Hints:
The protein has helices spanning 9-17, 55-77, 83-116. The protein is mostly helical. The chain has one domain (2-116).
Amino acid sequence: MEYTAQLDKWTAIRRGLKGQCPKCGEAKLFKAYLKPVETCASCGENWENVRADDGPAWASMLIAGHVLAPFFYFITFRTELPDWLRTLALVVVGVAMCLLALPRMKGLFMAWIWYTGAPTS
Ligand SMILES: [Zn+2]
């Protein structure tokens, strides 16, 4: 992959995090929530075979879990809310964090896999 030699690894990863094509940063990486485009509309890079598999889900849960831990402590031990409301708040915040993190982590993993030239499919 001679084209990655001129591109900084962190630039590619930052573009992936933002949902942009890691190679050019000019076009979207996803055509739907988690569905990557087949080829970049700007540079023509093929994204069809760059598969992140379970990496984005793992990273999203890891991040959400660590961020939720203080929230869990606060809402459990520092509030007088009823149990059903505590549970509802934790579920809503946890699901929202995972849904927000998932496409970003997928972009990050796809950029990383693409940049390193790791075998795909
Ligand atoms: Zn591109």
